[in-house]
Design brief:
By secondary structure, the chain is of the alpha/beta class. The chain folds into two domains: about 230 residues, Type I PLP-dependent aspartate aminotransferase-like (Major domain) (Aspartate Aminotransferase, domain 2, 3-Layer(aba) Sandwich), CATH 3.40.640.10; about 100 residues, Aspartate Aminotransferase, domain 1, CATH 3.90.1150. Helix content is about 40%, strand content about 10%. It contains twelve helices and twelve strands. β2, α4 and β3 form a beta-alpha-beta unit. α2 packs parallel to α8. The radius of gyration is 21 Å and the shape is globular. The two termini are about 20 Å apart.
Length: about 375
């Protein structure tokens, strides 16, 4: 079976971890500081700080932005549920708007229509590594005096006109989960050019401690830190990221060329000047003559890993259909998510399927995958 995801773990990763183990200093420290410096240099931001995972990167950043209970944060429903949940965790309200059918990303015009007096922020998600229309989104944010947090948890290496995603908003969050384009098993990163947001995030993620550390605490905080053991993996993975992004894009281009000749299948489209990092390659079925679930089953029978990713968008998940059971519902008036209809997100959820695009897919594997697709679809 050719897996749909496979982490790269080589001798460099093993040596980096062994070095930290032998040092005896496993908690967040010098190696994490080096990882932060290298990551912010790679991105081109002034600041970066590690967290325990992508979810805590988002939740810590939202709290550092001073998002309050009852505030509305506009986001996409077509994403991993952590994007919406981190908004709900702090008592804010996720406002879902629909996505663009070509990019699968949040539709800026629908963002503008959803803004109310309670809106304080926008959370675009660069889904599957495809950059959102950040220029349009930032123009809206400036017009309406809103903050922007980029959920870049799937988009390490994606660019818009040569500028890396995670550098457009007030703050951004990345995940280093085991399947991501660069991984540490679990882990996350907050990036920003805003020193005030950074200082708040540093306290929030570390029990409310100030710069000096120790046992002086200045606000309610959490233990959202990263271990140096994990950061050691991140440093090696970051060094591989440019090459691995190119490898993913080469495979994606081959898939794009193949699907251009196949009726009834549409691919996620890159606008001019946008470069996806292709965390996931997920075309969708647009013909009634083809059955998405049958395609997945047939691919698996031919030893090609395939699946749906977000078949059920966030607003259709039980979490939001039953939001009044959430503890903040006693104090916050949530929308009736049961009545919300977002047809494009729902349609992409019903029709997309994932095929392997990671760097360890060999030329032989690509030949096998394309042959399988040809047999199934043509």
């Amino acid at each position: 079976m050719i897996p749909f995801a496979k982490p790269i773990i080589d001798h460099e990763e093993l040596e980096a971890v062994e070095k930290v183990l032998k040092s005896g200093m496993l908690a967040e420290g010098k190696v994490s500081r080096a990882f932060e410096e290298e990551f912010q240099k790679y991105l081109g931001t002034k600041y970066a700080t590690v967290t325990s995972n992508g979810t805590t990167a988002l939740s810590t950043a939202l709290e550092a932005m001073n998002i309050q209970p009852g505030d509305e944060v506009i986001t996409t429903p077509f994403t991993f549920i952590a994007s919406a949940n981190t908004i709900s965790m702090i008592g804010a309200i996720p406002i879902f708007v629909d996505v663009d059918p070509d990019t699968y990303n949040i539709d800026p015009e629908q963002i503008r229509e959803a803004i109310t007096e309670k809106t304080t922020a926008i959370m675009p998600v660069h889904i599957f590594g495809m950059p959102c229309d950040m220029k349009h989104i930032m123009d809206i944010a400036e017009d309406e005096d809103l903050m922007v947090i980029e959920d870049a948890c799937q988009a390490h290496g994606g660019t818009i006109d040569g500028h890396k995603v995670g550098t457009f908003g007030d703050v951004s969050a990345f995940s280093f989960y085991a399947t991501k384009n660069m991984m540490t098993g679990e882990g996350g990163m907050i990036a920003t050019n805003n020193e005030e947001i950074l200082e708040k995030a540093l306290m929030i993620k570390n029990h409310g401690r100030g710069k000096g550390g120790g046992y002086s605490h200045f606000r309610i905080g959490y233990n959202n830190r990263m271990m140096d053991l994990v950061a050691a993996l991140g440093r090696v993975q970051l060094s591989r990221l440019p090459e691995n992004t190119r490898a993913r894009r080469v495979k994606a281009i081959k898939y794009n060329e193949f699907f251009e000749e196949v009726d009834g299948i549409e691919t996620q489209r890159e606008p001019n000047g946008f470069e996806s990092s292709y965390h996931v390659y997920a075309p969708r079925v647009t013909s009634h003559d083809k059955d998405r679930d049958e395609i997945i089953e047939n691919l698996r029978e031919m030893d090609v890993g395939s699946r749906t990713v977000y078949a059920l968008p966030c607003h259709k998940q039980g979490t939001y259909l039953n939001i009044n059971e959430w503890r903040w519902a006693e104090f916050v008036n949530y929308p009736d998510y049961k009545s919300i209809k977002l047809p494009i997100s729902e349609e992409i959820g019903r029709t997309h399927f994932d095929i392997p695009v990671h760097p360890l897919v060999s030329d032989e594997d690509m030949h096998k995958i394309l042959n399988a697709l040809e047999n199934i679809l043509t």
